[in-house]
Amino acid sequence: MSVATATPVDSPAAPAAGGRKGRGDRGARWGALGFVSPAVILVAVLLYAPFLYTVVLSFTEYDGLNSPEWIGVENFTRFFDDPALTTSLRNTLMWVVGTTVVPVALGLVVAVLSFGIKGGTWLRLPFMLPYALSGAGLAVIWSFILQSGGAANDILGALHLPGAETSFLQEEPWNTLSMIVAWTWQQTGVNALLFLVGLQSIPKEPLEAAKLDGATGWSLFRHVTWPLLAPLTTVVVGLALVASLKTFDIVWVMTQGGPGRNSETLAVTMYRDAFVSGEYGYGSAVALVLTLTTGAITLAYLRRQVKSREALG
Amino acid sequence: MSVRARVLTALVVAASLALAACGGDSGDDGGSGGKTELKLYNDKGAWSPFFEDLGKLSKEQIGIGMTPVGYTDEPTYSAFIKASFRTNEKPDLFTWSTGGRLEEIVEAGQVAETTDLWKDAIAAGDLSKELEEAYTYDGKQYCVPLNISYWVMFYNKKVYDEAGLKPPTTWAELMSNADALKAKGVTPFYQTSVLFSFVWFQQLLIGTNPDLYNKLATGEAKYTDPGVVAVMERWKQMIEGGYFSDAGSKEDPAVQLKTGKTAMGIFGTWFNTSMTQQGLKPGTDYGMFTIPNVDPAQSKVTMAFESGPLCSLAKAPDTKASTDYMKWWVGQPAQEKWANSRGDVSANPKVAIPDPGLSAIAKSAGGGEYTLANRYFEAAPAPVLTAALDAFGAFMVKPDTYQKQLENIQKAADDYWKGR
């Protein structure tokens, strides 16, 4: 107890105890600044500085050997003329649509169907387990399944289903689609978990009132549960959107964007141009375009969601 | 503690943290006695045990030890080496590749010249005059050979024996062997769409028209020339004829050859290491043969050849120690250990090779029996190579697109040669 009573007096947050209010305030502010400065310096050096450096590099031609040469917007005009951009954009779009719809919808289904029933945890467990894998681990496992003549081909062949001869990781668009399937396998669980948290936080009263009014099953979900889940859906879809726009690890491990660049996403294009081709200026330009695109889309999405919610309530 | 003192203390702590983060380690290169322990940065992480053996041997023989720092991801490695040119974290020795990539860093003035070393080594018979060319820029030499390899056909001996086949001496015999294997349900040849996608293009072209192959490398010929198109058409027919393993398979090629799923594969003689690491015995479980020319009218067999360099920087931490190490590296004791432990040939002609198959190939190659062609990976300028590797990969999935793929490579070649 003595600690509890003594603390406010010594704390810089309670300067009123002394008679030097103005000085104490300023001192506390400087003191606080001094203490946060290590973190501020680290963030500035490790996050802001590299970002600004990338922005500068994107306007230069830089091979990593000779000094960067200022070339204005040439990297950007070249990027928009590059035929690889079309493939890369198309694949990124497939990732955006695929990963914001399928794993989110499946996650919702798993959460809703297993919520509030006996043994629900056990039913959800198989969907949660894949989330324990790292992105690279996931990619390695699915490479073995999807590679030409791999498990997927064998199973389809044994069941006399079409696709036994398809090279899933070689032919477009199968390579991008099958990587989205792999991603879905992992992400469904975490989305289900998030929706489950949402379901648990829904107040009981509106649900009970709806039930008294005769709402059951689909109509209960459609008109009561779903609207109440909206704030969480915004977060889940927002996270999926950002993740899909920066898809890199799974593609790099499974196909390296190939063959012939046909499964590249924007993030893979950026890495390839910067590090494989050693064109750091051009790679930086791609990185900048990707960052701005991701930022703009996410912002637009969140704004729209917030606005529509404000309109509702 | 007063407020001012607290602010000051916090700032000092912050500044020292930032300084500690920015500062590098001082290293062991201080003092005038010279370095006795060098670090060899390389992109051949799988060879670490062999490098370590050489490090121990050099410590015994010249008093300079060597520790390998192995990378397995090529882009990361290249980025690190290039970054080291601008920082204080400089490698004592590093591996690279010959051709356009070496030229690039030589032109940037980063690589230590080795002209005198080459002169002495050639006089002593430790290096050959023929090899010198791959290391020469503007009449001066840079780096020394880390390794050399000839590109030959590896084959599963048991599969060959079971089918009653013998290593071929003509292209027609090779294809008839392939047909016999196909009839028995064995895939004749290995191919991949990742990184080594150039191999069959290289082999079919040097076996048909080595002159055209060399002209492509120097920009004197175009990828859309009829000779190159004909090679792609042949390759396409072979793919469609079922002669190749699935290019998208991620199974280790050594395992594919070991299991007999695939009977043959074109590799550098360094592939011996991969085969022996699979527990296979050269001469018993597997063998290798020189790949006959596609065009029988060619007087000599053309064989692809690669040589990877071991370099030091012009501003290496201790240039003398690095040069002394390279001098020792090309000598017979080092090369005997280096080549034989990996089961490969050596750049030093004095080195005796215990494996009879390999020894015969090295002897014939060294004796001028073959026309040697620089491997495509080194022969093609870097941007052309990048475009070509993609194009060949895409071609393997859709062989009908060969014309479009050649046009894509030529576009990269046009861009490259336009600036020269």
Outline of the structure:
The complex is a heterodimer of chains A (313) and B (420). Chain A has 13 helices and two strands; from the N terminus they run H-H-E-E-H-H-H-H-H-H-H-H-H-H-H. By secondary structure, chain A is mainly alpha-helical.
Give the tally of β-strands of chain B: 11
Strand order of the largest sheet of chain A: 1-2
Largest contact between protein chains?
Answer: A-B, 36 and 45 residues
| Tally of helical runs of chain A | 13
Give structural notes.
The complex is a heterodimer of chains A (313) and B (420). With 313 residues, chain A is mostly helical. In chain A, 74% of the residues lie in helices and 1% in strands. Chain A has 13 helices and two strands, in the order H-H-E-E-H-H-H-H-H-H-H-H-H-H-H. Chain A has a two-stranded antiparallel ribbon with strand order 1-2. Chain B has 19 helices and eleven strands. In chain B, 45% of the residues are buried. Chain B has two domains: 158 residues, D-Maltodextrin-Binding Protein, domain 2, CATH 3.40.190.10; 201 residues, Periplasmic binding protein-like II (D-Maltodextrin-Binding Protein, domain 2). With 420 residues, chain B is α/β, with parallel strands linked by helices. In chain B, strands 1, 2, 3, 6, 7, 8, 9, 10 and 11 form a nine-stranded mixed beta sheet that branches. In chain B, strands 4-5 form a two-stranded antiparallel ribbon. In chain B, helix 2 packs antiparallel against helix 15, helix 9 crosses helix 11 and helix 18 packs antiparallel against helix 19. The interface between A and B is large, with 36 and 45 residues.
